[in-house]
């Protein structure tokens, strides 16, 4: 209960709602960095995943890439990138995107790859062309895994954007690191709880997307990883 | 923060001088990342079994696991401080155990669910009681699926634990903050490389363990 009390005290303090370090600004920054990174990661990962999945080539490379990406310590990567390329939005966002592409790519690949061969044969038998099979059959059937990949990437991005405040990125992570530095645990709790809430909202959005985008015929239990 | 002009990415003599530190930090890193995996496995098996036995239990457990997985580790570590403090290893271990559970519980449930009904009936017909059937028949058949989750959980835990250096418990993560404070890339690169090596070594160990645990999968392909 202590945490909720601290959070409320911090959250209801009007001083925390103003200026460049105010809650609206920081929240917007976090959403902006994360949304932009996810969009770019999806723009890279989805076509590559669709292509490799549809043609069946490069699967081993894709799977190894995902394994490798999972093993990378994000804090170290973010610090190294900033040390080499300097403080600035560009380098940090590039790192966020690079870390988010593998889950999108691999899940899309796996999803398309694992579409029942009989269904694909049937689609071809009905006279569909390659792209038609991909867009009308494979993508809808692979939608649960495609969304899972995007969800994993989104979670990863929101978390890494928080950590990246260590190397002076804005966003909600600022409250955590600045508060820690000032030994102001109230601000640390405030930032942390807001990050948790943002993560819950992201999870909720993907739950809603699942309802909207996954055809009723292919709904099945999703996995976390 | 920027690199001083002329500073090489790696100073090999610094690496050579700090080998003992690497060994100590690696040991600490392994403990902090593997203890949650072991705890997570010990909790997720009974939780998974219970979710199968009482099916109403699974939707809330699954939703909880999904939600927990979405929460950034830094926020959880910071909130844990309130309960455990800066000098406790539990600050790192408890949240990481949560992530392990989030990955493992669905895999345990999926693994147990895919045990063919005919196999279960055969075991019952042979006089196996509920518990003996679970331990000697159902869990062994679920090993490949559980192992897949365990591999993901282990690799994630090894890479994630370095964030806990920000609450004073990060194993190799100390190399990252050390390098950042001194604007010195060598320890950062050493830390990244060691983390990746640890993750792959642990993964290889699990693959080997799986081969030993499921000898039948080697002779008859297709059961795995």
Automatic annotation (TrEMBL), chain A:
TM ranges: 31-51, 72-101, 157-177, 189-209
InterPro entries referenced in this protein's UniProt entry, alphabetically: ABC_transp_perm/SBD, MetI-like, MetI-like_sf
Ranges for domain ABC transmembrane type-1: 27-206
Key words, A-Z: Membrane, Transmembrane, Transmembrane helix, Transport
Topology of the protein relative to the lipid bilayer: Multi-pass membrane protein
Protein's cellular compartments: Cell membrane; Membrane
Pfam families with a match to the protein in the record: BPD_transp_1
Keyword Membrane in annotation: yes
Family: Belongs to the binding-protein-dependent transport system permease family.
Name the UniProt record assigns to this protein: ABC transporter permease
Automatic annotation (TrEMBL), chain B:
Short name of one Pfam family: BPD_transp_1
Primary site of residence: membrane
Membrane-traversing stretches: 30-49, 61-81, 93-112, 141-168, 188-209
Signal peptide: none
Membrane-protein topology: Multi-pass membrane protein
Name under which the protein is recorded: ABC transporter permease
ABC transmembrane type-1 domain location: 26-205
Family: Belongs to the binding-protein-dependent transport system permease family.
The organism of origin for this protein: Actinomadura alba
Record localization: Cell membrane; Membrane
Keyword annotations from UniProtKB, A to Z: Membrane, Transmembrane, Transmembrane helix, Transport
Matching CDD domains: TM_PBP2 (cd06261)
Entry-linked InterPro entries: ABC_transp_perm/SBD (IPR051204), MetI-like (IPR000515), MetI-like_sf (IPR035906)
């Amino acid at each position: 209960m202590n945490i909720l009390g601290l959070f409320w005290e911090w959250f209801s303090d009007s001083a925390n709602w103003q200026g460049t370090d105010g809650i609206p600004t920081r929240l917007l920054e976090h959403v902006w960095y994360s949304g932009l990174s996810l969009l770019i990661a999806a723009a890279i990962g989805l076509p590559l995943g669709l292509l490799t999945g549809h043609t069946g080539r490069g699967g081993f490379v894709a799977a190894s890439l995902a394994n490798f990406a999972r093993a990378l310590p994000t804090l170290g990567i973010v610090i190294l990138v900033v040390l080499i390329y300097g403080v600035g939005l560009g380098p940090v966002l590039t790192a966020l995107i690079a870390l988010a592409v593998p889950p999108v790519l691999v899940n899309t690949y796996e999803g398309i790859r694992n579409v029942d061969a009989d269904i694909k044969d049937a689609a071809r038998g009905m006279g569909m062309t390659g792209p038609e099979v991909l867009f009308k059959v494979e993508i809808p059937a692979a939608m649960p895994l495609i969304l899972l990949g995007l969800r994993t990437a989104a979670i990863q991005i929101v978390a890494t954007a928080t950590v990246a405040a260590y190397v002076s990125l804005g966003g909600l992570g600022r409250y955590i690191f600045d508060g820690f530095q000032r030994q102001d645990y109230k601000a640390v709790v405030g930032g942390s709880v807001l990050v948790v809430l943002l993560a819950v909202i992201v999870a909720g959005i993907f739950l809603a997307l699942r309802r909207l985008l996954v055809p009723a015929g292919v709904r099945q239990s999703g996995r976390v990883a | 923060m920027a690199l001083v002009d002329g500073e090489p990415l790696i100073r090999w003599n610094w690496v050579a001088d700090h080998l003992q530190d690497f060994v100590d930090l690696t040991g600490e890193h392994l403990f902090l990342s593997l203890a949650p995996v072991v705890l997570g496995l010990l909790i997720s098996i009974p939780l998974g079994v219970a979710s199968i036995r009482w099916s109403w239990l699974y939707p809330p457990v699954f939703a909880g696991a999904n939600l927990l997985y979405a929460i950034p580790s830094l926020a959880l570590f910071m909130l844990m401080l309130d309960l455990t403090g800066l000098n406790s290893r539990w600050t790192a271990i408890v949240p990481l155990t949560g992530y392990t559970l989030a990955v493992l519980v669905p895999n345990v449930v999926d693994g147990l669910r895919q045990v063919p009904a005919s196999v279960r009936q055969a075991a019952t017909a042979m006089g196996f009681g509920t518990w003996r059937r679970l331990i000697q028949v159902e869990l062994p058949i679920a090993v490949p699926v559980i192992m897949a989750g365990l591999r993901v959980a282990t690799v994630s835990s090894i890479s994630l634990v370095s964030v806990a250096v920000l609450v004073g418990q990060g194993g190799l993560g100390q190399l990252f903050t050390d390098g950042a404070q001194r604007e010195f890339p060598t320890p950062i690169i050493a830390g990244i490389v060691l983390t990746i090596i640890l993750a792959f070594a642990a993964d290889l160990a699990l693959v080997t363990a799986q081969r030993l645990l499921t000898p039948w999968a080697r002779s008859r392909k297709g059961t795995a």
